[in-house]
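pinned: reference chain
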Amino acid sequence: MTGLRGRRVLLGVTGGIAAYKAASLARELQRAGAEVTAVLTASATRFIGADTFAGLTGRPAYTSLWESPGEVVHVRLAQAHELAVIAPATGNVIAKLAHGLADDLLSATLLEFDGPVVLAPAMHAGMWAAPATQTNVRTLLARGVRFVGPEEGALAHGDEGMGRMSEPGTIAEVVASVAARSTDRTTTGDRLSDRRVLVTAGPTHEPIDPVRYVGNRSSGKMGVAVATEALARGARVTVVLGPGAVRPPVGVDVIEVETAEEMRAAVLAHAADAEVVVMAAAVADFRPKLSADRKLKKDDGIPELQLEPTPDILAELGEHRRPGQLLVGFAAETNDVEQAGRDKLARKGLDLLVANLVGRAGTGFGTDTNEAAILVADGEDVALRRWTKAELAGGLWDRITERLPPPATG
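pinned: its C-alpha coordinates
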Protein backbone atom coordinates (compact mmCIF):
# COMPACT_ATOMS: atom_id res chain seq x y z
CA MET A 1 0.00 0.00 0.00
CA THR A 2 2.79 2.39 -0.94
CA GLY A 3 0.29 4.83 -2.42
CA LEU A 4 -0.59 5.98 1.12
CA ARG A 5 2.91 6.91 2.23
CA GLY A 6 2.88 10.53 3.36
CA ARG A 7 -0.75 11.09 2.31
CA ARG A 8 -3.11 13.07 4.54
CA VAL A 9 -6.28 11.04 5.02
CA LEU A 10 -9.51 12.23 6.63
CA LEU A 11 -11.30 9.32 8.33
CA GLY A 12 -15.01 9.93 8.84
CA VAL A 13 -16.80 7.72 11.37
CA THR A 14 -20.59 7.61 11.54
CA GLY A 15 -23.08 6.04 13.92
CA GLY A 16 -23.27 2.33 13.28
CA ILE A 17 -22.24 -0.74 15.22
CA ALA A 18 -19.33 -1.18 12.77
CA ALA A 19 -17.79 2.05 14.11
CA TYR A 20 -15.48 -0.05 16.29
CA LYS A 21 -13.82 -1.36 13.12
CA ALA A 22 -12.86 2.19 12.18
CA ALA A 23 -10.19 2.09 14.90
CA SER A 24 -8.55 -0.85 13.12
CA LEU A 25 -8.85 1.00 9.82
CA ALA A 26 -7.07 4.01 11.32
CA ARG A 27 -4.24 1.69 12.37
CA GLU A 28 -4.07 0.05 8.91
CA LEU A 29 -3.86 3.44 7.20
CA GLN A 30 -1.14 4.58 9.56
CA ARG A 31 0.90 1.43 9.05
CA ALA A 32 0.81 2.20 5.34
CA GLY A 33 2.36 5.60 6.05
CA ALA A 34 -0.71 7.86 6.00
CA GLU A 35 -1.35 10.76 8.36
CA VAL A 36 -4.87 10.13 9.66
CA THR A 37 -7.31 12.61 11.20
CA ALA A 38 -10.64 11.29 12.45
CA VAL A 39 -13.93 13.17 12.35
CA LEU A 40 -16.80 11.54 14.26
CA THR A 41 -20.50 12.29 14.08
CA ALA A 42 -22.42 12.67 17.33
CA SER A 43 -24.00 9.26 16.74
CA ALA A 44 -20.59 7.68 16.21
CA THR A 45 -19.54 8.75 19.70
CA ARG A 46 -22.32 6.54 21.11
CA PHE A 47 -20.30 3.57 19.84
CA ILE A 48 -16.66 4.71 20.12
CA GLY A 49 -14.92 7.72 21.61
CA ALA A 50 -12.89 10.45 19.93
CA ASP A 51 -10.08 9.83 22.41
CA THR A 52 -9.60 6.35 20.94
CA PHE A 53 -8.74 7.85 17.55
CA ALA A 54 -6.60 10.59 19.03
CA GLY A 55 -4.61 7.93 20.86
CA LEU A 56 -4.25 5.75 17.77
CA THR A 57 -3.35 8.50 15.31
CA GLY A 58 -1.46 10.92 17.54
CA ARG A 59 -3.64 13.70 16.12
CA PRO A 60 -6.74 15.46 17.48
CA ALA A 61 -10.06 13.81 16.62
CA TYR A 62 -12.98 16.12 15.89
CA THR A 63 -16.69 15.85 16.65
CA SER A 64 -18.27 19.29 16.37
CA LEU A 65 -18.40 22.38 14.18
CA TRP A 66 -18.21 24.45 17.36
CA GLU A 67 -15.27 22.98 19.25
CA SER A 68 -12.72 25.60 18.07
CA PRO A 69 -14.31 29.06 18.49
CA GLY A 70 -13.05 31.59 15.98
CA GLU A 71 -11.97 28.89 13.50
CA VAL A 72 -13.87 27.56 10.48
CA VAL A 73 -13.03 23.95 11.33
CA HIS A 74 -14.71 22.23 8.38
CA VAL A 75 -12.91 24.42 5.84
CA ARG A 76 -9.53 23.86 7.49
CA LEU A 77 -10.06 20.08 7.61
CA ALA A 78 -11.23 19.95 3.99
CA GLN A 79 -8.24 21.92 2.77
CA ALA A 80 -5.71 20.04 4.91
CA HIS A 81 -6.46 16.56 3.57
CA GLU A 82 -5.90 14.83 0.25
CA LEU A 83 -8.27 11.89 0.58
CA ALA A 84 -11.40 11.09 2.59
CA VAL A 85 -12.72 7.69 3.66
CA ILE A 86 -15.98 7.21 5.56
CA ALA A 87 -16.23 3.95 7.50
CA PRO A 88 -18.83 3.04 8.46
CA ALA A 89 -20.93 5.03 6.01
CA THR A 90 -24.53 4.84 7.17
CA GLY A 91 -27.57 5.30 4.96
CA ASN A 92 -27.97 8.73 6.55
CA VAL A 93 -24.52 10.04 5.59
CA ILE A 94 -24.85 8.56 2.07
CA ALA A 95 -28.13 10.49 1.70
CA LYS A 96 -26.52 13.68 3.02
CA LEU A 97 -23.65 13.46 0.57
CA ALA A 98 -25.95 12.72 -2.37
CA HIS A 99 -28.11 15.76 -1.60
CA GLY A 100 -25.40 18.16 -0.44
CA LEU A 101 -26.61 18.47 3.16
CA ALA A 102 -24.16 19.85 5.70
CA ASP A 103 -25.66 19.91 9.20
CA ASP A 104 -22.67 18.61 11.18
CA LEU A 105 -18.88 18.73 11.05
CA LEU A 106 -18.39 15.63 8.90
CA SER A 107 -21.01 16.45 6.24
CA ALA A 108 -19.90 20.11 6.11
CA THR A 109 -16.27 19.05 5.68
CA LEU A 110 -17.17 16.63 2.90
CA LEU A 111 -19.23 19.26 1.08
CA GLU A 112 -16.17 21.54 1.12
CA PHE A 113 -13.73 18.75 0.24
CA ASP A 114 -12.73 18.35 -3.43
CA GLY A 115 -10.47 15.28 -3.29
CA PRO A 116 -11.23 11.56 -3.78
CA VAL A 117 -13.85 10.09 -1.43
CA VAL A 118 -14.19 6.41 -0.46
CA LEU A 119 -17.32 5.13 1.29
CA ALA A 120 -17.59 1.82 3.17
CA PRO A 121 -21.35 1.34 3.71
CA ALA A 122 -22.70 -0.43 6.78
CA MET A 123 -26.40 -0.79 7.54
CA HIS A 124 -29.21 -3.32 7.74
CA ALA A 125 -30.03 -5.17 4.53
CA GLY A 126 -33.38 -3.46 4.09
CA MET A 127 -31.83 -0.02 4.35
CA TRP A 128 -29.14 -0.90 1.81
CA ALA A 129 -31.69 -2.34 -0.63
CA ALA A 130 -34.12 0.57 -0.23
CA PRO A 131 -34.77 2.40 -3.53
CA ALA A 132 -33.81 5.72 -1.91
CA THR A 133 -30.40 4.37 -0.83
CA GLN A 134 -29.70 2.81 -4.21
CA THR A 135 -30.64 6.06 -5.97
CA ASN A 136 -28.27 7.94 -3.67
CA VAL A 137 -25.50 5.42 -4.36
CA ARG A 138 -25.93 5.83 -8.12
CA THR A 139 -25.80 9.61 -7.72
CA LEU A 140 -22.51 9.41 -5.81
CA LEU A 141 -21.02 6.87 -8.22
CA ALA A 142 -21.75 9.28 -11.07
CA ARG A 143 -19.75 11.93 -9.19
CA GLY A 144 -16.76 9.62 -8.86
CA VAL A 145 -17.23 8.52 -5.25
CA ARG A 146 -15.74 5.07 -4.68
CA PHE A 147 -17.64 2.40 -2.70
CA VAL A 148 -16.12 -0.56 -0.85
CA GLY A 149 -18.77 -3.14 -0.02
CA PRO A 150 -21.08 -3.73 1.68
CA GLU A 151 -20.84 -7.50 2.01
CA GLU A 152 -23.07 -10.38 3.02
CA GLY A 153 -22.71 -11.37 6.64
CA ALA A 154 -23.71 -10.87 10.25
CA LEU A 155 -25.48 -7.61 11.06
CA ALA A 156 -26.70 -6.04 14.31
CA HIS A 157 -29.04 -7.99 16.59
CA GLY A 158 -28.06 -11.34 15.08
CA ASP A 159 -29.47 -10.61 11.64
CA GLU A 160 -27.80 -11.71 8.40
CA GLY A 161 -27.77 -10.11 4.97
CA MET A 162 -26.18 -7.62 2.62
CA GLY A 163 -25.01 -4.61 4.61
CA ARG A 164 -21.98 -5.70 6.60
CA MET A 165 -19.03 -3.31 6.37
CA SER A 166 -15.97 -4.61 4.55
CA GLU A 167 -12.99 -5.51 6.71
CA PRO A 168 -10.50 -2.73 7.54
CA GLY A 169 -7.70 -4.36 5.54
CA THR A 170 -9.88 -4.47 2.43
CA ILE A 171 -10.92 -0.84 2.85
CA ALA A 172 -7.32 0.25 3.38
CA GLU A 173 -6.21 -1.48 0.17
CA VAL A 174 -8.90 0.32 -1.81
CA VAL A 175 -7.99 3.65 -0.23
CA ALA A 176 -4.35 2.99 -1.15
CA SER A 177 -5.33 2.22 -4.73
CA VAL A 178 -7.38 5.41 -5.00
CA ALA A 179 -4.50 7.38 -3.47
CA ALA A 180 -2.02 5.93 -5.95
CA ARG A 181 -4.27 6.86 -8.87
CA SER A 182 -4.65 10.43 -7.60
CA THR A 183 -0.93 11.02 -7.08
CA ASP A 184 -0.20 12.01 -10.67
CA ARG A 185 -3.01 12.61 -13.13
CA THR A 186 -0.56 12.37 -16.03
CA THR A 187 0.38 8.74 -15.35
CA THR A 188 -0.66 5.87 -17.58
CA GLY A 189 -2.94 4.74 -14.75
CA ASP A 190 -5.40 7.41 -15.85
CA ARG A 191 -5.61 5.78 -19.27
CA LEU A 192 -8.32 3.51 -17.86
CA SER A 193 -10.68 6.41 -17.19
CA ASP A 194 -14.00 5.68 -18.93
CA ARG A 195 -12.49 2.71 -20.83
CA ARG A 196 -14.71 -0.35 -21.18
CA VAL A 197 -13.32 -3.39 -19.39
CA LEU A 198 -14.72 -6.93 -19.34
CA VAL A 199 -13.63 -9.31 -16.56
CA THR A 200 -14.63 -12.91 -15.89
CA ALA A 201 -14.53 -14.26 -12.34
CA GLY A 202 -15.34 -17.40 -10.39
CA PRO A 203 -15.92 -21.02 -11.42
CA THR A 204 -18.37 -22.66 -13.76
CA HIS A 205 -20.60 -25.56 -12.71
CA GLU A 206 -21.31 -28.21 -15.33
CA PRO A 207 -24.40 -30.21 -14.27
CA ILE A 208 -24.38 -33.98 -13.85
CA ASP A 209 -27.99 -33.87 -12.71
CA PRO A 210 -30.16 -31.20 -11.00
CA VAL A 211 -28.18 -31.71 -7.75
CA ARG A 212 -24.56 -32.45 -8.69
CA TYR A 213 -22.05 -30.80 -10.95
CA VAL A 214 -18.46 -30.88 -12.20
CA GLY A 215 -16.63 -27.78 -10.98
CA ASN A 216 -13.54 -26.42 -9.29
CA ARG A 217 -12.41 -24.61 -6.16
CA SER A 218 -12.45 -21.05 -7.51
CA SER A 219 -13.94 -18.42 -5.18
CA GLY A 220 -13.85 -15.55 -7.67
CA LYS A 221 -11.67 -13.45 -5.33
CA MET A 222 -8.97 -12.84 -7.92
CA GLY A 223 -11.33 -11.82 -10.69
CA VAL A 224 -13.21 -9.52 -8.33
CA ALA A 225 -9.89 -7.96 -7.22
CA VAL A 226 -9.09 -7.29 -10.89
CA ALA A 227 -12.51 -5.69 -11.42
CA THR A 228 -12.21 -3.67 -8.22
CA GLU A 229 -8.85 -2.24 -9.25
CA ALA A 230 -10.14 -1.36 -12.72
CA LEU A 231 -13.11 0.44 -11.15
CA ALA A 232 -10.76 2.36 -8.85
CA ARG A 233 -8.84 3.54 -11.91
CA GLY A 234 -11.99 4.90 -13.50
CA ALA A 235 -12.90 2.12 -15.92
CA ARG A 236 -16.44 1.12 -16.85
CA VAL A 237 -16.39 -2.48 -15.71
CA THR A 238 -18.57 -5.46 -16.59
CA VAL A 239 -18.03 -8.75 -14.73
CA VAL A 240 -19.26 -12.12 -15.99
CA LEU A 241 -19.57 -13.93 -12.66
CA GLY A 242 -19.67 -17.67 -12.06
CA PRO A 243 -21.80 -19.35 -9.37
CA GLY A 244 -20.94 -19.04 -5.69
CA ALA A 245 -18.29 -16.41 -6.26
CA VAL A 246 -17.72 -13.35 -4.06
CA ARG A 247 -19.60 -10.26 -5.19
CA PRO A 248 -17.94 -7.42 -7.11
CA PRO A 249 -18.14 -3.90 -5.65
CA VAL A 250 -20.92 -1.42 -6.20
CA GLY A 251 -20.47 0.30 -9.55
CA VAL A 252 -19.64 -2.85 -11.52
CA ASP A 253 -22.17 -4.29 -13.98
CA VAL A 254 -22.62 -7.99 -13.15
CA ILE A 255 -23.81 -10.76 -15.46
CA GLU A 256 -24.35 -13.99 -13.54
CA VAL A 257 -23.80 -17.31 -15.29
CA GLU A 258 -23.49 -20.95 -14.26
CA THR A 259 -21.98 -23.05 -17.05
CA ALA A 260 -19.07 -22.60 -19.43
CA GLU A 261 -21.51 -22.29 -22.32
CA GLU A 262 -23.38 -19.51 -20.53
CA MET A 263 -20.09 -17.76 -19.76
CA ARG A 264 -19.05 -18.06 -23.41
CA ALA A 265 -22.32 -16.51 -24.59
CA ALA A 266 -22.07 -13.61 -22.12
CA VAL A 267 -18.40 -12.94 -22.91
CA LEU A 268 -18.89 -12.98 -26.69
CA ALA A 269 -21.91 -10.70 -26.36
CA HIS A 270 -19.90 -8.04 -24.51
CA ALA A 271 -16.32 -8.48 -25.67
CA ALA A 272 -16.74 -6.49 -28.87
CA ASP A 273 -17.34 -3.28 -26.89
CA ALA A 274 -14.46 -3.85 -24.44
CA GLU A 275 -11.01 -2.36 -24.91
CA VAL A 276 -9.57 -4.81 -22.37
CA VAL A 277 -10.79 -8.36 -21.66
CA VAL A 278 -9.40 -10.12 -18.57
CA MET A 279 -10.33 -13.79 -18.36
CA ALA A 280 -9.74 -14.50 -14.67
CA ALA A 281 -12.50 -17.11 -14.32
CA ALA A 282 -11.61 -20.74 -13.70
CA VAL A 283 -13.74 -22.25 -16.45
CA ALA A 284 -14.27 -26.00 -16.09
CA ASP A 285 -12.27 -27.84 -18.75
CA PHE A 286 -14.77 -30.70 -19.04
CA ARG A 287 -18.52 -31.22 -18.70
CA PRO A 288 -20.73 -34.31 -18.65
CA LYS A 289 -21.66 -35.29 -22.18
CA LEU A 290 -25.19 -35.99 -20.96
CA SER A 291 -26.89 -34.31 -18.01
CA ALA A 292 -29.71 -36.17 -16.27
CA ASP A 293 -32.99 -34.30 -15.87
CA ARG A 294 -33.62 -35.93 -12.49
CA LYS A 295 -31.47 -36.71 -9.48
CA LEU A 296 -29.42 -39.87 -9.97
CA LYS A 297 -30.18 -42.30 -7.15
CA LYS A 298 -27.42 -44.05 -5.26
CA ASP A 299 -29.47 -47.25 -5.27
CA ASP A 300 -29.32 -47.28 -9.08
CA GLY A 301 -25.58 -47.94 -8.96
CA ILE A 302 -22.54 -45.95 -10.02
CA PRO A 303 -23.37 -43.90 -13.13
CA GLU A 304 -21.08 -43.96 -16.15
CA LEU A 305 -19.97 -40.37 -16.49
CA GLN A 306 -18.72 -39.48 -19.95
CA LEU A 307 -16.98 -36.11 -20.24
CA GLU A 308 -16.43 -33.78 -23.17
CA PRO A 309 -14.42 -30.56 -23.46
CA THR A 310 -16.07 -27.24 -22.66
CA PRO A 311 -15.71 -24.37 -25.16
CA ASP A 312 -12.29 -22.68 -25.15
CA ILE A 313 -13.50 -19.11 -24.59
CA LEU A 314 -10.03 -17.60 -24.36
CA ALA A 315 -8.85 -19.16 -27.63
CA GLU A 316 -12.03 -18.01 -29.38
CA LEU A 317 -11.50 -14.46 -28.15
CA GLY A 318 -7.90 -14.57 -29.35
CA GLU A 319 -8.96 -15.63 -32.83
CA HIS A 320 -11.68 -13.01 -33.24
CA ARG A 321 -10.64 -10.01 -31.18
CA ARG A 322 -10.80 -6.63 -32.84
CA PRO A 323 -7.69 -4.53 -33.59
CA GLY A 324 -6.29 -2.72 -30.55
CA GLN A 325 -8.13 -4.85 -28.00
CA LEU A 326 -5.96 -6.19 -25.17
CA LEU A 327 -6.56 -9.78 -24.08
CA VAL A 328 -5.37 -11.08 -20.70
CA GLY A 329 -5.54 -14.64 -19.44
CA PHE A 330 -4.94 -16.56 -16.23
CA ALA A 331 -3.41 -20.00 -15.76
CA ALA A 332 -3.60 -22.13 -12.60
CA GLU A 333 -0.64 -24.52 -12.45
CA THR A 334 0.71 -26.95 -9.86
CA ASN A 335 4.26 -27.14 -11.26
CA ASP A 336 6.51 -25.47 -13.88
CA VAL A 337 4.30 -22.42 -13.38
CA GLU A 338 6.16 -19.89 -15.51
CA GLN A 339 6.96 -22.24 -18.39
CA ALA A 340 3.40 -23.55 -18.53
CA GLY A 341 2.12 -19.98 -18.44
CA ARG A 342 4.51 -18.90 -21.19
CA ASP A 343 3.28 -21.76 -23.39
CA LYS A 344 -0.35 -20.75 -22.84
CA LEU A 345 0.44 -17.07 -23.50
CA ALA A 346 1.79 -17.94 -26.95
CA ARG A 347 -0.75 -20.66 -27.75
CA LYS A 348 -3.76 -18.45 -27.02
CA GLY A 349 -2.36 -15.31 -28.66
CA LEU A 350 -2.58 -13.22 -25.46
CA ASP A 351 -1.01 -9.89 -24.55
CA LEU A 352 -0.50 -10.80 -20.88
CA LEU A 353 -1.04 -13.81 -18.68
CA VAL A 354 -1.03 -14.30 -14.91
CA ALA A 355 0.44 -17.70 -14.04
CA ASN A 356 -0.72 -18.84 -10.58
CA LEU A 357 0.70 -21.55 -8.38
CA VAL A 358 -2.18 -23.60 -6.91
CA GLY A 359 -2.47 -26.72 -4.81
CA ARG A 360 -0.48 -25.38 -1.86
CA ALA A 361 -1.52 -23.60 1.34
CA GLY A 362 -1.72 -19.82 1.12
CA THR A 363 -1.89 -19.48 -2.65
CA GLY A 364 -4.55 -19.82 -5.31
CA PHE A 365 -8.21 -20.67 -4.94
CA GLY A 366 -10.06 -19.18 -1.98
CA THR A 367 -7.03 -17.51 -0.39
CA ASP A 368 -6.19 -13.81 -0.04
CA THR A 369 -2.69 -14.30 -1.48
CA ASN A 370 -1.23 -15.73 -4.67
CA GLU A 371 2.17 -16.93 -5.76
CA ALA A 372 2.05 -15.69 -9.31
CA ALA A 373 4.03 -14.35 -12.24
CA ILE A 374 2.86 -11.76 -14.76
CA LEU A 375 3.98 -12.83 -18.22
CA VAL A 376 4.07 -10.30 -21.04
CA ALA A 377 4.10 -11.01 -24.77
CA ASP A 378 6.03 -7.88 -25.73
CA GLY A 379 7.97 -6.88 -22.64
CA GLU A 380 9.61 -7.86 -19.38
CA ASP A 381 7.92 -10.47 -17.19
CA VAL A 382 7.36 -10.14 -13.45
CA ALA A 383 8.86 -13.26 -11.89
CA LEU A 384 6.92 -15.62 -9.64
CA ARG A 385 6.44 -14.12 -6.17
CA ARG A 386 3.93 -13.80 -3.33
CA TRP A 387 1.26 -11.08 -3.70
CA THR A 388 -2.00 -10.20 -2.06
CA LYS A 389 -4.75 -10.46 -4.63
CA ALA A 390 -5.17 -6.66 -4.52
CA GLU A 391 -1.45 -6.16 -5.12
CA LEU A 392 -1.49 -8.61 -8.02
CA ALA A 393 -4.48 -6.84 -9.56
CA GLY A 394 -2.67 -3.51 -9.25
CA GLY A 395 0.51 -4.89 -10.82
CA LEU A 396 -1.50 -6.39 -13.67
CA TRP A 397 -3.33 -3.14 -14.44
CA ASP A 398 -0.05 -1.21 -14.34
CA ARG A 399 1.18 -3.38 -17.20
CA ILE A 400 -2.11 -3.33 -19.07
CA THR A 401 -2.35 0.47 -19.03
CA GLU A 402 1.23 0.77 -20.31
CA ARG A 403 -0.03 -0.94 -23.46
CA LEU A 404 -3.18 1.10 -23.90
CA PRO A 405 -3.05 4.08 -26.28
CA PRO A 406 -3.65 7.47 -24.66
CA PRO A 407 -7.31 8.46 -24.48
CA ALA A 408 -8.66 10.27 -27.51
CA THR A 409 -8.85 14.04 -27.05
CA GLY A 410 -10.98 16.71 -28.65
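why pinned: The radius of gyration is 23 Å. The first strand starts at residue 8 and ends at 13.
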